[in-house]
Amino acid sequence: MPASFPVVPTAEGVTRQVLADHENLMMVSFRFEEGAEGTQHSHPHVQSTFVNSGRFRFTVGGEVRVLGPGDSLIIPPNENHGCVCQEAGELIDCFTPRRDDFL
After folding, report:
1. Is residue 47 domain-resident?
2. Domain at 50, CATH number
3. Which of the 8 DSSP states describes residue 12?
4. 87 in a structural domain
5. pLDDT of 52-96, one tens digit each?
6. Does residue 93 sit in helix, strand or coil?
């Protein structure tokens, strides 16, 4: 039976919930209110992002892309990235290896 992880506020209008984890891979739900930001940051993990709902303006390595439901992208390790939510929604992110700082 999978572990139940808490919903954690990460920024104004943003929550995070780990959905599944293994030492080599982690799946995480991020929920955003309209206008909320995922501040620019980088980490050593490879990250995939899938837009489950909503609309987001992503900046990855200086390149700007607007993504909506069903869109996805890969963020290489140590690449500076962030997003602004243009329409409330949910991102499903996977990280490899897992983000131990989220546990």
Report:
1. yes
2. 2.60.120.10
3. T
4. yes
5. 999 999 999 999 999 999 999 999 999 999 999 999 999 999 999
6. strand
Any bridge partners for residue 82, and if so which? Answer: 59
Contact 72, 49 (CB under 8 A): yes
Residue 61 carries which DSSP code?
T
Q: Total domain count for the chain?
A: 1
pTM for the complete prediction?
A: 0.94
Q: What is the 3-state secondary structure (H, E, C) of the chain?
A: CCCCCCCEEEECCEEEEEEEEECCEEEEEEEECCCCEEEEECCCCEEEEEEEEEEEEEEECCEEEEECCCCEEEECCCCCEEEEEEEEEEEEEEEECCCHHHC
Instruction: Tell me the residue range of the domain where 91 lies.
Output: 18-102
Tell me how far apart the alpha carbons of residues 23 and 35 are, in angstroms, rounded to a whole number: 33
